[in-house]
Amino acid sequence: MWKPLSIVSGIALLAAGGISYVMVRPVYVSERLQTQYAEKNLKSAQKLEADAKVAEKKAEEELKRLQSTLTKAQSDKAAAVAEKEAALKVLEEAKAAQDAADKELAGMKEQIKGFGNLETMTTELNSLKAKSAEYTNQIEGVKNAIASSLARKANTDKLITNAKRIELWQRSGSMPDNFTSRVTAVNQEWGFVTLAAGNGSSVVNQAKLDVTRGGSVIGRVVVTHVNPTNSVAEIVPGTVAPGDAILPGDRVSVSDASRGSRRNVEAPAPSAPAAPKPSTPAVPSDPFATPGETPAAPPDATTPQTPAPETPAPETPAAGPTEPAPETPPTPPADTPATGN
After folding, report:
1. Sign, CA torsion 313/319/321/326
2. Which residue has the higher pLDDT, 304 or 89?
């Protein structure tokens, strides 16, 4: 009796197992497919995270390099300012010496009026004229040195302005106004897109971009990860119209909130040089006049008078040490174009 019951029980168990397998199999297959899809997305996310860390490290290195360049430019600017102040001091001393020589020359002319020995007075007068011409040459040399210092200072100001602008853009998420690129890939499920431009095209983190198609804005994205040749941006929720979507090939441009022109760092404009007074030909009223506008020297300083042929007399050198000839000022450096934009 127990054998038939055992057989019936076995058949019932097999039937129950078959029914359970048929009912559980679709659920098992679905869960397995979902597990595989989750593992694939996890690997993709891990790769993006690794790329983002590499990009972030490169961005930090670039920021350190820019800060080093800014420090060096500021040091060069301080040196140029010190050199300018030293040149101004030399100019003032040379001008004082020329004024003293002019006064001495005026006194000699008054003495000529009261004495009859014109040959001796003429010799002394010529010597004073030579000294006046020498002082004038020294002043011209100092003016050239000042012009060279100003040119170097202008170049340094440009470097500082460019370095400050790039650093500000990096910190504020700003980009050049004329930046454009394209969407290369879209992940609608995770809400991010991939752009065909990276830090080599001045893309920075937190930059806000408009996504356009056919001249109309269809959405907005914010850059979250920057690579050398591409970048990743999150789609701003609520900016894409219902039923529409950002697609590969859509154009991206800089939003108004991230335009670099709103955060430009400009160097202070130099004051306009004052024109030299016509009544003061030797020294201009402004020592920082534009190079090349050198006032004409007095006629008696450039063309010293000589004694008459019928009464020759040797020139008597003026008392006092002879001033050394001014050194040739260095050539102003050429402007270096700004980089980074």
Report:
1. negative
2. 89
Residue whose C-alpha is closest to residue 256's, from 230, 217, 225, 224: 217
205 assigned to some structural domain: yes
Enter the pTM of the model: 0.34
147-177 exposure pattern, b = at least 16 Cβ within 10 A, e = fewer: bbbbbbbebbbbbbbbbbbbbebbebbbbbe
What pLDDT sits at residue 142?
92
| pLDDT for the residue numbered 183 | 96
Residue 257 lies inside a defined structural domain of this protein: yes
Q: In this structure, what token pair is assigned to residue 290?
A: 């534009």
Chain center to CA of 224? 25
User: What confidence score (pLDDT) does residue 210 get?
Assistant: 95
Does residue 224 lie in a domain region? yes
Compute the distance between CA of residue 16 and CA of residue 8 in angstroms, rounded to an integer: 12
CA distances from 78 to 18, 66, 86, 146 (A): 89, 18, 12, 15
Q: Is the pLDDT score of 223 beyond 90?
A: yes
Among residues 309, 269, 302, the alpha carbon closest in space to that of 136 is found at 302
Residue 193 Cα to chain centre, angstroms: 31
CB-based contacts of 227, cutoff 8 Å, min separation 6: 51, 54, 55, 198, 199
CA–CA gap between residue 135 and residue 101 (Å, rounded): 9
The answer on pLDDT for 129 being more than 70 is: yes
In 3D space, the residue among 171, 160, 157, 154 whose CA is nearest the CA of residue 70 turns out to be 160
C-alpha angle 4-5-6 in degrees, rounded to nearest 5:
90
Question: What distance lies between CA 298 and its chain's CA centroid?
Answer: 44
Which helix (H) or strand (E) covers residue 166, if one does? helix 118-172
Inside any domain, residue 275: no
CATH number of the domain residue 223 falls in: 2.40.30
How many domains does the chain fold into? 1
Task: Give the model confidence (pLDDT) of 12-30 as tens digits.
Answer: 777 777 777 777 777 778 8
Domain of residue 219, residue span: 180-262
Nearest to 232 by CA among 188, 200, 189, 186: 186
